Amino acid sequence: MKYLLCFLFFFLFFYPSVRCLKEDPDIKRDVTQMITSKGYPCELLTVTTEDDFYLGLHNMPNPGKPPVILWHGIAQNAASWTCNFPGEDLIYFLYDAGFDVYLGNSRGNNYSMSSKLYNPKKDPKDFFNNCYIDYMTKYDLPATVDYILEKTGFEKIAYVGHSQGTIINFAALASNPDYASKINFFAALAPAVFLKHTNSSLIRLVEEFVDNNNIFDLFDLFHTYNLDINNPVLKIVMSYLCKLLPTACDSIFWMVAGYDPKHLNITRNPVYVAHLDSLPLRDMKMLDQWTHTGRFQMFDFGNDQDNYIHYGQNTPPLYQLSNIIPGKAPKMMIFYGGNDLLADPYDVEHYLLPRLNPDLFWEKPIFISDYSHADFLWAQNAKDLIYKKIVNALLQLDFGKRE
Ligand SMILES: *[C@@H]1O[C@H](CO)[C@@H](O)[C@H](O)[C@H]1NC(C)=O
Ligand SMILES: *[C@@H]1O[C@H](CO)[C@@H](O)[C@H](O)[C@H]1NC(C)=O
Ligand SMILES: *[C@@H]1O[C@H](CO)[C@@H](O)[C@H](O)[C@H]1NC(C)=O
């Protein structure tokens, strides 16, 4: 609750004084505009999932070239890949190296906010209770990948994920062999798959919401199933706040992911904040469960009966990383950071890596000792430490063009 009060305090205190500041044009741009304003092509496509959710899919079309898809983390959308400039962001390196670049959007974010069955405004409970890791895994990834392979005529696609974008891909590779056979390469940036040792205040914040039943009941009472970080007024205020008071902005980043300003272009903070997106409560709840159990498992409905209805057993099934078999799954390149509060290096080294067959690795997992969670997206030196390595690997792969 204290975090909410802080938010409110900043909101009330700064709103009157900040309206007159000149703002960065990327704050108001959507993903397509951010890319086209940098001189690159981009269009927004729509993918329909098996359960009839409509997902936005951004594409920097490079016809005839092999496809690569990038998938964002929690409380973000495709804009997480577009917040800096050509010569900095991974997408421009990929495009210039001759790849057809796609940016996925998970259900419930700004670009994937509709479904045939549920209207997020009229039936928020049904809509947002379908927006969590298991369904992104089961529906969003396969639908998006199949759509791209169908469109481009390639047999395989490369995948780059950040944070939750790595979780859902590990989950899909572990549970869906057909999907695994279509991915030829997986670059995992800040893989927050095991959360037993996470120090993220975001997760602690979630605990506060979820473990304190009064607060959770309160959300129910107000029919709130989603934290609308995408709320335009809140975002404008946050952006101005970051511009006016970079230290306050730092502490918000710190809360979420661990923050170390030395790698970031701090004048871009208002842009980064402006493109944060909504947080479905069930998704948060699922991550919260993982911090308690330390397991990579499906959503726990909280009692034997409901679990049985969904899974045919009383406990949530595990995503078994041992099901990811070399030769039948992509080669992997894993990057993790020593200052990452969310994907804590202890969890990566003691839980994730030992569960992966070493033959899956394209090269030994890469530890960047002073990287925090957001640096994988926005650090000024990420191009040298990460992006050029990914591009070099992709240039050596076979994507199997069909005739
Ligand atoms: C949400 O998406 C629409 C286009 O689908 C775009 O016009 C709008 O700017 C986006 N809003 C945010 C906050 O990203
Ligand atoms: C840092 O951000 C500012 C403001 O957006 C921008 O003008 C500048 O070019 C950026 N610097 C680098 C090195 O990208
Ligand atoms: C997380 O907290 C633990 C215990 O306080 C600490 O040992 C560890 O270094 C912290 N991890 C990071 C990445 O700060």
Describe the structure.
The protein is an alpha/beta fold and 403 residues long. The chain has a single domain (2-394), classed as Rossmann fold (3-Layer(aba) Sandwich). It is built from 18 helices and 11 strands. Strands 1, 2, 3, 4, 5, 6, 7, 10 and 11 form a 9-stranded mixed beta sheet that branches. Helix 6 (133-152) crosses helix 7 (164-175) and helix 9 (201-211) crosses helix 14 (281-293). The longest helix has 20 residues, at 133-152. Mean pLDDT is 87; it is low at 1-21. It binds 2-acetamido-2-deoxy-beta-D-glucopyranose (NAG) (3 copies).
Q: Output mean pLDDT.
A: 87
Low-confidence stretches: 1-21
Sheet having the most strands? 9 strands, mixed
- What CATH architecture label applies? 3-Layer(aba) Sandwich
Beta fraction: 5-15%
Give a count of the beta strands, DSSP E runs of length 2 or more: 11
Q: What is the CATH domain class?
A: Alpha Beta
- Specify the CATH homologous superfamily: Alpha/Beta hydrolase fold, catalytic domain
Estimated helix fraction: 40-55%
End-to-end distance = 58 Å
Shape: globular
Order of helices and strands: HHHEEEHEEHHEHHEHHEHHHEHHEHEHH
**Structural class of the helices, strands and pairings?**
alpha/beta
List keywords for this structure.
alpha/beta, Rossmann fold, nine-stranded mixed β-sheet, 18 helices, globular, disordered N terminus, signal, hydrolase, AB_hydrolase_1, lipid metabolism
